[in-house]
Structures
1.
Amino acid sequence: MAPSLPKTYKAVVLPSVNSPFKLQDVELKRPGPGHILVKVLACGTYKAVVLPSVNSPFKLQDVELKRPGPGHILVKVLACGVCFSDVATAAGHMGHDIFPCVPGHEIVGDIVEVGGDGSSSAWSVGQRVGGPWHGGHDNRCRQCQRGQFQLCDNGAVNGVSRDGGFAEYVVLRSEAVVRVPKDMEPAQAAPLLCAGVTVFNAIRKMHVEQGALVAVQGLGGLGHLAVQYARKMGYEVAVLSSGADKASFAKELGAHHYINTKSGDAMAELTKLGGAAIIVQTAPNPDVIGALVAGLAPTGTLLSLAPVGPVQIDSRLLVMKGASVQGWPSGHALDCEEAIRFAQNHDVKCMVEKYPLAKVQDAIDSLKAGKPRFRCVLIP
């Protein structure tokens, strides 16, 4: 799919001898046969959202262009999702030694430069790629030897330990880059690199037999994707959420059952269905997470995907049910590619609200207020 192009662009035009260097709008010239149209990386700078310190506002500024070295690629960002982890990063929950940093780990864009001489790289200019949470690994530690690259002892994280995608350009480590199909709209693909791969990977790695009951707690950014993935994987799906008004939407996404957590005993209702083989916790509410264990089937698993800190769980129920609690750490590049491919093949749709990069603080404020339906995406 060819990108849309503006009718005009900014250029310095010299109308005559000794005239001043002045920026003006000029008509975009389309390339003819034997020519190409190139986006110029102007004056060695680009726009990026830089967090200089803990709790600083999300503010756009000019930063120096970083060229990719060997093992790296430079990407023109087309879309970058906004995640609660970005809010946590700004609040210092990922550490204080990461600042200044550029957040953003749901990155989709096109390669504009390959580091080194490019001869040994698997990547080439023009490819559509993504940068997920997992931003790099050492290929040496035990976790890497097991293929669990996102758990690398010396792993990098886009938007945390490395500058991320809240910018016009980003440098990514080659070993962690994701192939993204060009026939998928960038704003659709971006959230699949975090929210999408997290629920997709977590559910499939539980190895629960098809037809089993999977309950999804919460119907937000993670939850609305979890419902779709679980249904398309062949599971019976129940949604646990507050309010009767969400029932029809849950059914539209593919849920077989909707349980209103504000009316009656939700875990008793889930137990009447036979109990859940998996309860996918996607809403970050520490007051309700522990109670979810009561809705598990024998040997069921409470799958925690939205971290909130300490929670209380009745260990007696775990023992009596033979149940377990497990988290899941997103995924590496291949996991992301498989999550995207599955979404394409089975029509899993992420619902997004787009914001221009300059309105990043509006997107963050909307996320904090719980307003988006269902993921905010920045468009540089």
Note: The chain is about 20% helix and 25% strand.
2.
Amino acid sequence: MPFVVFAYLAVQILIVAYHDFQTKKISNKWSLINIGFYVFFTLIFPEYYTFSLETFIWPLGFFVAGFILFLMKIMGGGDSKYLASFYLLIPSQFHEQAFFSLAIATVLVGGSVFTKNIMKNADLIMTAFKNKDIKLVRSIFGKKFAFAPVIFISWIWFGWIIKEKILF
């Protein structure tokens, strides 16, 4: 992977993560920018980026899974669109490793948020279960958290894992 692409994506996701953390929204402009860069990268880095089915498998998977999670009110629409377009900028030979890093970061951060919620609201949770108040339980655990910072954490970890394959 070209270093310039890795560094650009690190800076981009840091900016997106900051805005997502502040507003809990990811603008569609980032997805459009990523699609534009994907087309550009196919022209200047044809050894890494191609218009092939293999390139689109993971992004389409994220888009479909994100849409389902959006319908279930688990994930925001901007998160899934951004993640799908972000994956277009990861050379396809790295998709699986990038996904592994993202999955681990999601479990660690999500697990931490979940545990913090339980510890912070233990009495309220016990009351909700005693009263069989499912709405109260959902209000405790139904809060969205910014996902772009998780993507950033996974990207840095991913970079560490593939550091020998990043071309300077």
Note: The mean pLDDT is 91.
3.
Amino acid sequence: MFTLGGWLFADLLLGLAMLFAVANTVGQEPPTPTPTPAPDYLATAESDLAFQEAENLQTVEALESQIDEAAISAQQTREAAEVVIAAATEAANTEATRAAMTSDQRATADAQATQDAASAQATIDALATQQAQSASNVDDLNSQLATNVAQATEAASALDEMATQQAEVQAVATANADSGANAQATVVAAQSQLATSEANAQSARATSDASSQALANAQATSDASNQLIADAQATSAASGQQIADAQATSAASSQLVADAEASAAALSEQVQLNSLNPNSVEEIIQVSLGGVTGGDGDAIDDAIAELDSVLAPYIDGQNCRLGFVLISSRANELGQGVTLSNAIAELINDEFSELLPEPAEGSTPELASVSIAYPGTEPVGEVELQLFLSSGCQPAG
């Protein structure tokens, strides 16, 4: 019983202490809570986004400039290819008219064709250089496109991160509202800042959409530029084939001209060999009248040596043939003179056949000559050879 009374007395004292504490705080306002400042994530995100947008705009402008340069290069390539095609067509037309040209005109045309071929080769080299530059520009363009797409992706990621930060700011503002009435001003300011941030974010999204559209337009322009380059390369290949065909035609025509000229030269030589120079050449030899007409071997050898001494320049010359020979021999009697002239004609026919005209097919070359005598004249055994040579004869020496 005594123990229970002790516990009741302690409870009464605790209750009195609590009443006293409550009485002292009645009518007093609770302490003002200190608001927690919101981190300035939004300003940082907006600054980063503005910087990223500026870089994206610069990249798009540089990309559009490179695309314009690639289009200009492709147009220049096409124009150069058209010039080459026109030159090849002109060369083909020139070769088609070669058959109707004179030799002087053909020589002039050959010189012009050589100059045109050199010009065409230089144009092809320049075209190949432009094509290599265009290919390099296309590679750079594709690299810039990839970089720009990566930057756009980073901008979108920044937008998402900024939205997350905005949500965090809203959560901080809500927490501050729970801390007391004085936090209301902070919440209002945060909401105002959030509205401004949302407006900026909307503007950033619009700018990002514009950048995406610019990228799409740049990609379309790049595709068109690639198509122009492909068309120019195809035109260049066709032009190269036409030039190759024209050069082949020119080579074939040149061969035909060379064959025709060779045939003309051979025909001219044949005509010169078979036509006579009306101006005769006189040669005189001295032989043994009795020995030659009597068939003496030594006398005949001496006569052949005499003939060789006067006919050697024509044997060693060019295009020389004996078309006709008038042989006049001095003798005591007419018959002896004619006999000696006939003997000399036989020696020329047998020993100097290379000077005889080309015979008809299946026939034997034979000297055309007339034997004459100078009877009762001195010196006996002197023989005059009146040579009518081919018109193109050029004696040696």
Note: The chain has two domains: 41-272, 281-389.
4.
Amino acid sequence: MSSWSKAATIGVIMSITNVCAVEYFVDANNGRDSNSGLSPAEAWQSVRKVNSTSLAPGDVVRFKAGGLWRESLQAQSGAPGQPITFTSYGEGPKPALYASVDLAAPEVWTSLGNNIWATKADSWDNFQPKPDFAPGDWNIFCDGDGRATLSASKHGEPPKVFTIDCLKVGKVPTNIQLNYFGIPLAPNQNIRFRFRARASKPFSIKNISLMRSHSPWGSYGKIIAHNTDIGTEWQEHEVLMSTTIGENKADGRLSFFIGDVIPEGCSFEFVPLGADSFDLYSLDLKQDVGNIVLTPIGGKEQIAAWKRWDLESLKKQGDYYHDLKDSRVYFYSEKDPTSLYSAMEAARRRNIVSLGKQKHFIVDGFTLAYTGAHGANGAPEDCVIRNCDFRWIGGSLLYTRNGRPTRYGNGVEFWCACKNIIVENNSFEDVYDTAMTNQDPDAGRIVNVVWQNNKTLRCEQAYEIWLTGEEMTVESIIVRNNTFIYSGFGWSHAQRPNPNGCHLLSYGMKCKIVDIRYENNVMINAKDAILWFFNDRVAEFKINNNRYIQAVDKPDEAKLFRWPGIDKAGITFAEYQRLTGLDADSTLSNQ
């Protein structure tokens, strides 16, 4: 049996061996996380409860049809022949996971005048002492290039003064850590930690984490706000955080990562002042909003707002700016936005499904929508993603280089080495970058990855590949029996600094190629090109039996194929066939 045939049987094997699995049920409206989860009547309520539960090989987690969760799902590993399955139960629309906040409520917005509206600022009150949060001694940890010492002394009465002396600055934040281990935490807690500090040389603490004390490391909370610019005079500082755990934990950890910011020769004095719980009022706009998907009142067609990079650039209806410093969105509207739009889905920078490096699992039958990041992302093995609808994906800031912001967001992205994967029978609409992709800058092997029977619509690209590691080997990637429609005709094309609307995109390819195939696909109307490679290795791909449709008067004369070394405007289908020998049995027409 060939490698690609083996991959095609994965889904069948998983389904057959999953018949006798224990089932858990999740109901967004009527469930409770304190329930057993073992029946619809005893359903859990949150995705967080699912993520915090250690699932066993063969388990099935069923989300109620018609339910909506504004949470992210974390895949977990099963075992060979016993995958963990995430799917649905009941009648109705597919269960939906959103990474967005709906801003279409009058109480959300405040008019600032001149057609500028701002979301409500975060606020908090009702502080109550929390004496069990980090009441004892702190610890220091150094690795890599970072070197520092920690001493503790009492200036008269308690509290203690902890002094860190930096002997050598590190290269990354984790090279020097100020840690407190063993903090008891509960779900849905808001905590303020206060301290006094001074330093012989000023610096700013930017990396703070509420997390698990030991391996496997993981987040137990998110930082809401912090005042941690350390000066040469004694000042009081605070860190506000919220827990994100689904059950009580006794192994919490608060860490200040200062390896790359504390100056060499600096003496940093730190005095803990205790902690408080508090009530938080927040829209949770801490992650970059990559898009706001607008539904006009009385209409069905959704439109994208236009992301701008400063307040002064808001000039026309639908322009918005997200200020991460104050966690507020600023929106240009000639009227109250809620009088114009019935929904305003602010897509935050959160992956909807985190695949990690998990193995032996199935994700089956969800709507995954409104994220500024990826629909699903990771480097998994032995898994299936099928029957899912990916909608309005991407647009958040990835980085800024030479003053130019770069945004990102893919439907399903496999990063780094992966093997034995099927992505099938999914639909992808309105994706900022590409619907489906394999990417990696490092070494490894990609084995038996099959993308089949999927449909894309208005994505900037349908399938993208780049693998820049010279020690990466692609043993088998197959893209087959898919339908790609209107690539480059979506919302992101006009907003991009680098528009390249095409069905098949490839950037750097320094890897070893054994078998990459594009077969039996239907590709209808691309904005800029059918195939656009930024490398000269197109002839090493196996591309054939595809049907290309381009709605122009003379498709045979259209320059729809591009790669380095040929006419920059591209070449025709016949020239592409002649130069590469590819697509010998494929057709191009205008209908």
Note: The chain is about 5% helix and 50% strand.
